[in-house]
C-alpha cells in the first residue's frame, strides 16, 4: 500500500462537475493498493498518517499531528501510484489491485483512519474520473509505502 500524504490548507474532489468532498486544514491522502496488502498494512498506515507530526505548533515547528489540530482528511484511491516505469515510456499498472480486492481495502482504510482521528473522512469515488484540487501547505508531501515500514 502506497500513500502520498499532503498537508493542505484546503482540498476538494469534483466528479462530473459536482463537488463530492471538501476540507479545510488537514490531509489529502492519495492511496494505491496492491493484491498483497493486508489489514496489518491498513492499521499501520492509518495510524501513521493520523499521527504524523507535520503541522506547526505555536513556535512554527512541525510538531503536531492531524489529531492534535483536529484536522480533516480526504482519501482518494489512486491506482497509478502502483505504476511500474522500468521499461519503456508507458507505465504498467499490473501491480495495482483490481477493484474486487482494492475497494474493500480502500473502504477499510477510510474506516480505520476515521477511528484514528475521531471524525468522518471524506473520499473521492473509487474508479471515477476525479478532479482533485488542493493548496499544499508548506509544501509538505510525505510518501509512504507499507512494504518499507521496517
What is the topology?
Elements: E1 2-15, E2 18-23, E3 26-32, H1 39-51, E4 55-56, E5 62-64, H2 66-69, E6 72-77, H3 99-117, E7 122-123, E8 130-145
Parallel strand pairs: 3-6, 6-7
Antiparallel strand pairs: 1-2, 1-3, 1-8, 4-5
Describe this protein with a few key phrases.
single chain; D-tyrosyl-trna(Tyr) Deacylase, Chain: A; six-stranded mixed β-sheet; 3 helices; 24% helix
The low-confidence runs, each spanning 5 or more residues with pLDDT under 50, are: none
Count helical runs. 3
CA-CA gap between termini: 14 Å
Helix content: 10-25%
The total number of structural domains is 1
Order of helices and strands: EEEHEEHEHEE
The CATH homologous superfamily is termed D-tyrosyl-tRNA(Tyr) deacylase
CATH architecture: 3-Layer(bba) Sandwich
Overall geometric form: globular
What's the gyration radius in Å?
Answer: 15 Å
Approximate strand percentage: 35-45%
How many strand elements?
A: 8
Q: Would you tell me the structural class of the helices and strands?
A: alpha/beta
Largest sheet: 6 strands, mixed
Mean pLDDT reading: 97
CATH topology: D-tyrosyl-trna(Tyr) Deacylase, Chain: A
What is the CATH first-level class name? Alpha Beta
Amino acid at each position: 500500500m502506497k500513500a502520498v500524504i499532503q498537508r493542505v490548507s484546503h482540498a476538494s474532489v469534483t466528479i462530473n462537475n459536482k463537488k463530492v468532498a471538501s476540507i479545510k486544514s488537514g490531509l489529502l491522502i492519495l492511496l494505491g493498493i496492491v493484491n498483497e496488502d493486508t489489514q496489518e498494512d491498513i492499521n499501520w498506515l492509518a495510524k501513521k498518517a493520523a499521527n504524523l507530526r507535520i503541522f506547526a505548533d505555536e513556535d512554527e515547528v512541525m510538531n503536531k499531528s492531524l489529531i492534535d489540530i483536529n484536522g480533516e482528511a480526504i482519501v482518494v484511491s489512486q491506482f497509478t501510484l502502483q505504476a511500474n516505469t522500468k521499461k519503456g515510456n508507458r507505465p504498467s499498472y499490473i501491480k495495482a489491485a483490481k477493484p474486487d480486492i482494492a475497494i474493500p481495502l480502500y473502504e477499510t482504510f477510510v474506516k480505520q483512519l476515521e477511528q484514528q482521528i475521531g471524525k468522518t473522512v471524506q473520499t473521492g469515488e473509487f474508479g471515477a474520473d476525479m478532479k482533485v484540487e488542493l493548496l499544499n501547505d508548506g509544501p509538505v508531501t510525505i510518501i509512504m509505502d507499507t512494504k518499507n515500514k521496517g
